[in-house]
């Protein structure tokens, strides 16, 4: 059995696991700092909604809790993008580091956006914060995210769709 573990790790993580572990540690640390400092769960879809309160008059985006905390939420959101950009510049091979076509990312982004509304939150809120706090709703949502993702990946693979 112990001989299977290195093969499994090498197959799933051909570039090693250190940078994934570091990323997970930083996500957990950031989530804890935000929660301990503000009492707010660090879900990205809520951060997006609060940011939209700057440019939208819709009541949905102008809830008092969003407007009161939107400044630091914008800094958090921009930091996510800046961190990814900085990592790419320092360690990547250019700005586009995927074999996936840009239009597929765009379609996937729209589908994820629709899913966050249907699921009442995003993978970061449910997956990182909700599961960590043993929320039943989050556990169900994360199981649903994973099952749908695995099913779609298997379907696309069976249809011969590649990046």
Q: Terminal Cα separation, in Å?
A: 34 Å
* Element string (H = helix, E = strand): HHHHHHH
**How many strands?**
0
Q: Which residues sit in consecutive blocks of at least 5 with pLDDT less than 50? A: none
Give the overall form: globular
Residue share in helix: over 70%
Give the DSSP E fraction (strand runs of 2 or more residues). under 5%
Rg of Cα set: 18 Å
The helix count comes to: 7
Going by helix content, strand content and strand pairing, the class is mainly alpha
InterPro entries: Sulf_transp_TsuA/YedE (IPR007272)
Pfam families: Sulf_transp
Keywords: Cell inner membrane, Cell membrane, Membrane, Transmembrane, Transmembrane helix, Transport
Transmembrane segments: 20-44, 72-90, 102-119, 139-161
Give a written overview of the molecule.
It is a single chain. By secondary structure, the chain is mainly α. The protein has a domain at 98-162. 72% of the residues lie in helices and 0% in strands. Helix 3 (44-52) packs across helix 4 (64-91). It is globular. The mean pLDDT is 82. It is found in: Cell inner membrane. It is a multi-pass membrane protein. The chain crosses the membrane at residues 20-44, 72-90, 102-119, 139-161. It holds the Pfam family Sulf_transp.
């Amino acid at each position: 059995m112990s001989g299977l573990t290195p093969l499994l790790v090498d197959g799933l993580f051909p570039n090693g696991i250190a940078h994934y572990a570091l990323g997970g540690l930083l996500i957990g640390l950031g989530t804890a700092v935000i929660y301990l400092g503000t009492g707010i769960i660090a879900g990205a879809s809520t951060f997006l909604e609060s940011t939209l309160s700057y440019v939208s008059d819709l009541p949905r985006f102008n809830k008092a809790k969003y407007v009161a905390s939107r400044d630091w939420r914008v800094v958090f959101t921009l930091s996510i993008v800046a961190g990814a950009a900085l990592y790419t510049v320092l360690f990547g091979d250019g700005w586009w580091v995927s074999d996936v076509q840009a239009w597929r990312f765009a379609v996937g982004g729209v589908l994820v956006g629709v899913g966050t509304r249907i699921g009442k939150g995003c993978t970061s809120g449910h997956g990182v914060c909700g599961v960590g706090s043993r929320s039943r709703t989050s556990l169900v949502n994360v199981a649903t995210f994973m099952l749908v993702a695995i099913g779609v990946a298997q379907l696309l693979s069976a249809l011969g769709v590649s990046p």
